[in-house]
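Technical note accompanying the year-one report. For the benefit of new consortium partners, we illustrate the data format agreed upon in the data management plan: each record pairs a sequence with a structure-token string. No post-processing was applied to the example shown here.
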Amino acid sequence: MSTRVGVITFPGSLDDRDAQRAVRAVGAEAVALWHGDHDLQGVDAIVLPGGFSYGDYLRAGAIASHAPIMAEVIDAANRGVPVLGICNGFQMLAEARLVPGAHTRNAHQQFIRRDQKLRVENASTAWTSDFTTGDEIVVPLKNADGRYIADAETIARIEGNGQVVFRYVDVNPNGSFNDIAGVSNERGNVVGLMPHPEHATELGFGPDTELAMRNGTDGLKFFTSALSAVLAH
């Protein structure tokens, strides 16, 4: 039986189908879930995809964090189920208090889209175990409210706990504190990150590499890591 990874669609989700394709690319079954349901359909892992849920009204991810299915997501996360929040999904995780911190408008007040270099700071989470700490990867980034912030005490705590999972390299595209691009909960099963690994999983569609244009597939290891985490349990 293949690993079943649920991808939740909210009103305004843009990257749910891309996340489903990424799940299938690593041999898992992608299960489409709906924000208004209370049924996770027994999935082994969960992806909260990118987009502009509920039009980013109030705050990005704030309304979605109270969607009916999020009660089940929070319960699953607390049980140790791997949960990945990408971009808007990261904002949802923060609003739901499943990961520390919050997000505000980019420091330059503009939407940004670029292929972004990241450094893997923690390779022991459910979504990073197939990386090595210190690896540098390139995945697309696209956001308007991507500036990661937290109070000084929280920053010190997550830095000390190894909860900073990814950091921006070469350029900080949105003014995030300490160049933070992704964080985890203390247990390491929940990870949120601003860049989009699901857009770097297929030859011909990913970032440019030294070998060829649109050849980058660094995002695949997020999803193979999750499969390993599920099989380990």
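Partners are asked to follow this layout when depositing records. The radius of gyration is 16 Å.
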